[in-house]
Amino acid sequence: MASPATAAVENLPQVLLLLHPAAFTIFGEEHFTSPKFRFLKAYESSLPLDEFLAANARSVRALLVSAATVVGAGILDLLPELRVIVTTSAGLDQLDLAECRRRGIRIASAGDIYSADVADCAVGLLIDVLRKISASNRYVKNGFWATKGDYPLGSKLCLFQLRGKRIGIVGLGRIGLQVAKRLQQGFGCTVSYNSRKKKNPDQVPYPFYQDVRELAANSDALILCCGLTEQTRHAVDKEVLAALGKAGVIVNVARGAVVDEKEMVRCLVEGEIAGAGLDVFEDEPVVPKELMELDNVVLSPHSAVLTRESMMELARLVVGNLEAFFSNEPLLSEYEDD
Amino acid sequence: MASPATAAVENLPQVLLLLHPAAFTIFGEEHFTSPKFRFLKAYESSLPLDEFLAANARSVRALLVSAATVVGAGILDLLPELRVIVTTSAGLDQLDLAECRRRGIRIASAGDIYSADVADCAVGLLIDVLRKISASNRYVKNGFWATKGDYPLGSKLCLFQLRGKRIGIVGLGRIGLQVAKRLQQGFGCTVSYNSRKKKNPDQVPYPFYQDVRELAANSDALILCCGLTEQTRHAVDKEVLAALGKAGVIVNVARGAVVDEKEMVRCLVEGEIAGAGLDVFEDEPVVPKELMELDNVVLSPHSAVLTRESMMELARLVVGNLEAFFSNEPLLSEYEDD
After folding, report:
1. Best exposed site among A46, A124, B145, B175 by fewest CB in 10 Å?
2. Biggest distance spanned by C-alpha atoms of chain A
3. Boundaries of each D-isomer specific 2-hydroxyacid dehydrogenase NAD-binding domain copy (chains A, B) (predicted)?
């Protein structure tokens, strides 16, 4: 017979987890728990997912997902009582939004909590690529400064100034706007942008380009900050890379598939663009092996959102959204279609 | 017999070089030449320096130096006709300024041309240390993301947010002010500073600390941007590092000797401070070997001033100052004591 404490826990409403959320590994599951709900972990079952859901999940009203958890109509059909999806991601491209809307499933995202960190990472990657910080660090740590002389070797100085650079931002949402502010106000760059719609010029003074290729042709660096949609998939293609040109740099903190990765790799290897700072890839965690040897390419493992401070805020928001849902209170960060 | 062209070159006024300037190696000597003067290169002679100067340099009126060329009374005694020193450095700590003043020798420095690049490098190093960009890059390039999982491993998330951090700037000159602008306006940090004198608060709104230790106690990161003087030598000592504390970060784009390097290395190894981004060292190009293995330490080889764009501007300024001197025109960037 279950103890009263166990029975009390078993009576708590369930929050379904399909995959192990990365945030649990990175920051600790204990930060995401609450006395007001308990987790139902599909990934700990030996059953196939559909059998597990058929056996356990027909009464589940809440689902917690990360960026990696794809939720389409098939899963939703197995969860007829589902009313809320809370995601640890700011982007929602893993969710079938139309199906959620049709079924009346509300969505709470991580909202704006990552924007500053992602913007910082974009600027950090850009400075690193232009000034070769990671490559210099490796050079010094290998002991080459004392034995081989100044980095870079040879007469071709491959460190470039940030001031005055023309920055093209693809996707001027919350992250893009923060990147723009840092680079224009802080570093004296000039900013232009592409996005679905031109922003109100009274609020957003940067020049708008309807066409990414044209933006690239007028930029020294393209910084990708857009969501992944059918419109932005491979938005940076062969023609855009050619327009960016031999002195141009790509920074991607959006999603890997916003770029035609194969074509970008070819351009980097053949010197058709100058460098890249990449936090995201088309087939993560697999990274094209050609990039591993290039000093003008800086790679980070989709960690633009990962800081101790943002994880603390995420935990507060996830627990708060789920507790609010189960208490019939307004969600803290409900996503609304625009 | 010399050809007319050779004779014409030999009649040009001489600009003495004691050491091979780094800028010649990095950017190319051809950018620093002029039809109005010629270089007299002591470093190409097999004679000891004093013999070379006694034999060749008694009529030399102009000297071109870099940061590495120490010029004291001994050298100046051998150059009685010297009237101008042009340096490729912004700092003047290699020159005996009192002796130069006493002898009426004018000085033209690189002025403000490096400030933006150095400030960019300081911010880049700070982001790198907080967000572990170089360490992540190495992790991904070693293929560990696909084989070992997310970086950082384990439950202790060691990536930190920049927003809201308390930045203490030591030396609020041209570089320090540009660092302050980037971090406060661009990234939402709060800035305080220490310098020889408190600035006019109408022009400089940041809180002033007379004492570096007290600044450190109230900062998450100390960014060193001061010149090296007897007052600033080892300004960051054991007590300051202890005041900065276990969560604190040091960024040094000033001079290595502003920090007690041995003590800083001990603090980094023993976890008494959180990390460091270092462009300068006490005994360059020798870097303490204890730093080579630390993921929370980012090293660059005194390259904060090195960009293609700043080298182009330097060449314009060096040639312009020397041509102006030989034409009895005002120097482009004359140093004046304050």
Report:
1. A46
2. 79
3. 123-304
